[in-house]
Every structure is written in structure tokens, then in C-alpha cells.
Amino acid sequence: MTHTQTRFATTPIAIIGAGPCGLTFARLLENENIDYVVFERDANSNPTLMHQGGTLDLHANSGQQAIKKAGLFEEFRKLARWDATRFVIQNPECTLKATFGEGRDAPEIDRFQLRQLLLDSIPSHKVQWGHGVRNIERNLSCKSKAPELTINFTNGTSASGFLLVVGADGAWSKVRPLLTSAKPEYSGKIFIEGRISHGNPSYEAALELSGPGNMMALGHGRALGVQQVADRSYRVYMGLEAPETLTRTALNMDDTKATKEKLLSSTEFFKDFAPDLRRFIADAEGPFRPWPLYRMPVSSLCWARVPGVTLLGDAAHVSTPFVGEGVNMAMHDALKLAQSLLKHCKSLKDDNHKDVDEIEQALAEYEAEMFGRAQDFINRCMLSEEMFFADNAAQKFIDLVTDATNRQQEQLFSGSSSSPQGQTEQPGTQSAQYSKI
């Protein structure tokens, strides 16, 4: 294979990864006429069954704020499912159930819809498909202030000449090693994903229980979720405390029937869940996809400043999904970095002059803010994760929601309904219905 190297002499910024995070950052730069190029490992923009991702809820003070700053909120409103905030929690025996979350300002949108919305908002030639990163090399002998970085791709080509390389390439980032040796750690939790299509025998039961939103049955160290997506079909999520090797040893993801039989036949899995819940596993359609859950060590969020490189989203602070803020954190990162660059880097719009010191000021400001926010995020994820997999998880979750609802009502009656800036909204604070069956 012939090696081709391209030098981007007038393009200051390379974005690695065309997910919602990288594309949000690209759109924000596009709005300011700052040049960039996005490198993405996928061959094209078409989502595949196994890689299109699930549904995401965008929060008002993070994900939605980034969409508004990107000038895409009206288009987002057309796609968002504002009725999908309904959340049902119950125990494995189906003797305890609570419904809450209706009316929250956290509408759902499928990941592939959000990605396409962002892709459509930037020129198509700005995204280079089929460019998975093999590694990134730094020329340590260079005496110039400008970082001499060469991005080597798995397709045999390479690119250089950038003043800033932004890693938005997810949990297993190829950009991260330039900044830190830290890697994501396995959380001890894994989810297995299946589907319930419109013609599925359990579709009507899913519709009745979850409606346009989500149901989670929690307890005994396990979790079963049924969640509607944009086409009104459902995803089934089976959560377990298990070794990282579970789906390579005890469960064979290539054999859906055998996997379901094991999940339903052992008390280690879902044998002791109520029949009305077990039916969702029995009828779940494959191919099943395993989602082992990882998180960055909190202590890793403090690397020293490295010229010309930074991280966004999961590349910086991947964590477990138990506070529902992963994509919101990532899009907020994109917004904060764009704002810091605009504040400090007046020269980025000048093709003939780029000030490296200005870029470093912006990166230092962005990372200082991001570190504290990310540490708090991962700590909250760990606390929520512990609750989700507790023996009496459903009761704990319902108590949390009830307490949050009561606090909000007290604020309303005292004449103070606003929350301190940065405070995380607890799910379901706008409505809750609780029952023992």
C-alpha cells in the first residue's frame, strides 16, 4: 500500500470522531468561520443495526444549550420526543411500582437522528470518512512553538500541520495517550441489548408498561429495561453485575436462543424475576449486543497541559450511564471548548497568522473547568450505579425521587423554585405516582 501524507497548512483544527460530541464542536466552529476537518473511522454516515446507538435525553442546561448555540434547536424540536420522559420503576417481583418524569425538560432523540442533524449542518467535505486513527506521533525534536503532530490512519494515510487536535473519539480514544497513560476501568457491570419490534408478541405489553418512555425493573443486583425509540419499537436492556468476560465465556452472543435460555434459567440472572418481566427477555430479538460499562478513574482527570491536544466527551471522562448525562456532558464540553477558543484565539480566523499561545490559553481554561465538572460527574455516576444494583434498588430509587419531589414542592411553597446553577435535576421531580401492588 502506498503511504500518502497530507499536510493541512491552512486548516488549524483536526477533530477525531464524528459522533454527537465531535460534530457539535464542528458545527460551533462552522458558525464562526473557523476552519477544521473531522476524521471518522466509519466508512460513511449510514447507521448500522449494531452501531446506531440507542436513545438520548438532552438536558436544558447542557445538551439543549449546545444545540441552541449551534443554531439547530428548531430542527431538534421537530425530531425530539417530548413525551418520552415518562419513567416507570418497579421491583423484580412487580409488587412495587412508581411512574414519574412526565413533563421534564429532557426530551429524547435517537443517537443516529442527533448525529444526522449535526452532519447535515456542516459541509459534507469537512468530514473524512474511513479514517480510523492508528496512532498520533509528536515530533519532539521540533523547535517551533507549533505542535508537530502527525495523525496516522488505519487506511495507510496520514495528516499533519494542525495547531490543535481534538479527541472526540470515545472511550478507547487514540488521542488520549498523548495526554495521559490512564485508561478506562471496567465497572463490574454489563448490559445486554435486544429488541422488540412492532410484530413481537411482547410489543403490546411493552407499549402498556413503558408507553413512549422507559421502564426499569431493579433489584437483587440486576436490572431489566424496556425503552421506546424513535420508530416506536423497543430496546430491551438486561443489566448484570458480572465479570468482564461474561459474554465471551458464560454467554454466547452469537447464539440468541441459547443466551435467552441461560438468562431465564438461572437465579444468577433473571430466573426469579416476575413472569410479566421475563417475557420481555424470552421474546427479545437478536442479535444481542453486549455493553460492558467502563469509567475513567477520577484521579486521572488532572493531566498536565500538552500543547496542541485536548479531549472531549467520553475520550476525556467516559463513565457509566446511571445519571443520564453522558452525551450532555460531551456536548457541553464541545460548547465550553468552542467558547474558550473564541474568547482567546482571535487569530484562528486569519489564514496567514495563527497564534499558538492563544490556543494554549484557551485549552488551559477549558481543561481546568472540565476537570472539576468531569470528576463530579464520575463520582455521581458511581453513587447512582451503586443504588441501581442494590438488593432493594427499586425502593431506594423511589425514595430518592419522592424526597426530590418533596424538596421541590417545599421550594415552590416558600417562593423559591429556582435551583442553584449547576445543580443536577433529580429524575422525576416534576411528577411522581407511587404504588404498592
Automatic annotation (TrEMBL):
Keywords of the record: FAD, Flavoprotein, Monooxygenase, Oxidoreductase
Keyword Signal among UniProt keywords: no
Domain of life: Eukaryota
GO molecular function: FAD binding; monooxygenase activity
Occurrences of domain FAD-binding (ranges): 11-180, 308-346
Alphabetized Gene3D superfamilies for the sequence: FAD/NAD(P)-binding domain
Location of region: Disordered: 409-437
Membrane spanning stretches: none
Name of one Pfam family that matches: FAD_binding_3
InterPro entries associated with the record: FAD-bd (IPR002938), FAD/NAD-bd_sf (IPR036188)
Protein name: Monooxygenase asqM
Originating organism: Colletotrichum spaethianum
